[in-house]
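Lab meeting, action items carried over

1. Structure of the two-component assembly. Owner: GW. Status: complete.
Input record:
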Amino acid sequence: TQLLEQSPQFLSIQEGENLTVYCNSSSVFSSLQWYRQEPGEGPVLLVTVVTGGEVKKLKRLTFQFGDARKDSSLHITAAQPGDTGLYLCAGVRETGANNLFFGTGTRLTVIP
Amino acid sequence: NAGVTQTPKFQVLKTGQSMTLQCAQDMNHEYMSWYRQDPGMGLRLIHYSVGAGITDQGEVPNGYNVSRSTTEDFPLRLLSAAPSQTSVYFCASSYSLSRGHGYTFGSGTRLTVV
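Predicted assembly:
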């Protein structure tokens, strides 16, 4: 059982459409991060959220941390082919070892 | 600024062979970790280190050893390779996870055990 569950697992959309990716858990996190990974490369950090209810924007990407700090979402407005990639959420649990646990990933394909 | 450097990029091993995956970072990060990535399972933590001389087990440590003699280097040793260890391995480093800092990842080592 994964600590962080992402949905959907796969997403294929047309250029210009909007989308939302969800990251859910039953555990509370002190911080939650989103990464994007291109084929053959390591994940690259997009954003970190640390406060319940926090919203951060990165150009057309909007990240939200749930009020209870158990979940997060990534919303992309007007998707572009350059947004194609594997999106991973990752969190540091509030209790226990100070490790970063990753979600299962969402593979996004934006069709021109 | 090289960041996190992993070698080799590709490796094929026979069952039972041993090898060491190298990882070095030049950012003076205290935190370093090894993850493996398998299809449909995201990244799973193998071992991690919070500083030189300190290592601990992650989610899937069996069959792997690590050491951290310097801040810069964090090698991962496969003791006796098994087909179940076929995976992509990533090394990562961070200034501090407790302050919400993210990881910087290497570009990975693709390992096949036959």
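2. GW to write a short summary for the group page. Key points so far: The interface with chain A takes residues 4, 33, 35, 40-45, 48, 50, 56, 58-59, 90, 92, 94, 97-98, 100-108 of chain B (CB under 8 Å). The longest strand of chain B covers residues 43-51.
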